[in-house]
Amino acid sequence: MKNILVTGGLGFIGSHTVVELHHRGYNPIIVDNLSNSQEEVLNRLKKITGTQFTFLNIDLVDFDKTRQIFSDQIIDGVIHFAAYKAVGESVEKPLDYYENNLGSLINLLKLSQEFRVSNFIFSSSCTVYGQPDRLPVDESFPKLPAESPYGKTKQVCEEIIEDYCKSNPDFKAISLRYFNPTGAHESALIGELPLGIPNNLVPFITQTAAGIREKLNVFGGDYNTPDGTCIRDYIHVVDLANAHIAALEHAEKMDTNYDMFNVGTGKGNSVLEVIQSFEKVTGISLNYEIVDRRPGDIEKIYADTKKVNSILGWKAERDLDNMMKTAWEWQKSLSIKE
Ligand code: UFG
Q1: What is residue 336's predicted lDDT score, i.e. its pLDDT?
Q2: Would you please indicate which residues are annotated as catalytic (active-site) residues?
Q3: 240: closest CA among 182, 300, 186?
Q4: pTM surpassing 0.90?
Q5: Mutual orientation of helices 12-23 and 237-253 as an angle, nearest 10°?
Q6: Among 16, 103, 212, 299, which residue's beta carbon has the most beta carbons within 10 A?
Q7: Diameter of the chain by CA atoms?
Q8: Neighbouring C-beta atoms of residue 253, cutoff 10 Å
Q9: pLDDT of residue 162
């Protein structure tokens, strides 16, 4: 059984990936410093899979402690999720973002070199494209200047990995550029756990429906889109998790040693379409209002998925209604717990 180090494995995407790795016969080893996750997720993973996974509470910026992981375990591959990800916070605290997101990556690459771990999957983002001048956006599009230090860390991390791959032909790495991950596991035992007031649309919708927030502000109704609201490519977190396994399998056999893939559905939906889908599947009428634009938002983006479909053999299977349904089931399970 192959051991896969999953950094940030108790987080939103990481925890769903742990489940799918387990289903596919891998042994995930979870590293997480609980900076934006809860240890309770480990119990939830056990409920879903019947397995008690190895969990190491380690900050990957600490080289010596991270080195200990590699010397204690046999690691066959790394999926690196752990990173700070709040766009607004990154503007306030750029040094924290550079230190954490770049420092942890560099430590993991150095240790992969030392311990000859050759498969590495990196969590990147469609944010590396900025606002592309035509759509859908494919992997050959240029990276435009990042809007935030967070976005810049994703661009720079991709470049660090690419440079390192050039220096070490035995090392195989893939960057997955996520579009907008949402939804939750169908068991409703794991899902997104935003700290404080959510920045992202779907947690804000579900918290509003649950009565935790009074009203959803829809940021901007005057964009150049059919209904005036921004368009994104929402991708179910379980589909996204499965893309990591497809990437791991591909990394082992690929001819080049670095590649990157969009992970989205290829379909754009507006904010109002997301709300309509939520209202349809839940029967709840959402309290929302169209307000001013949010600074830094791009108007529309969705993925060209030809490359990921053909080379990784991966395709999104779950639609927007499924994302809304599972996100709502997850939200309801939280309310019951409280
Ligand atoms: N939105 C609202 N109201 C809210 C929250 C969001 O109308 O309360 C809108 C946004 O304006 C945007 C859409 O919903 O049009 C999606 O917003 P999210 O914040 O959920 O997602 P973003 O596309 O802005 O952010 C995502 C990732 C970031 C990444 C960014 C790059 O979550 O990590 O893409 O564009 F940096």
Answers
A1: 58
A2: 150
A3: 182
A4: yes
A5: 60
A6: 16
A7: 56
A8: 7
A9: 98
Tell me which residues of the chain have a pLDDT lower than 50.
Answer: 337-338
- Nearest residue CA, atom 11 of ligand 1? 219
Ordered alpha helix ranges (H), 102-148: 103-114
User: Taking a C-beta distance cutoff of 8 angstroms, is the pair 5, 107 a contact?
Assistant: no
Nearest CA to ligand 1 atom 4: 201
180 Cα–ligand 1 center, Å: 8
pLDDT score recorded for residue 16:
98
Which secondary structure element, helix H or strand E, spans residue 79, and what is its range? strand 77-80
Half-sphere exposure of 165 (CA within 13 A, CB side): 22
Ligand 1 shell residues, CB under 6 Å:
85, 87, 125, 127, 150-151, 180, 199-201, 204, 216-219, 230, 232, 271, 294, 297-298
> How far apart are the CA of 115 and the centre of ligand 1, in A?
38
Give me the amino acid identity at 218.
V
Which atom of ligand 1 sits closest to the CA of residue 151?
A: 36
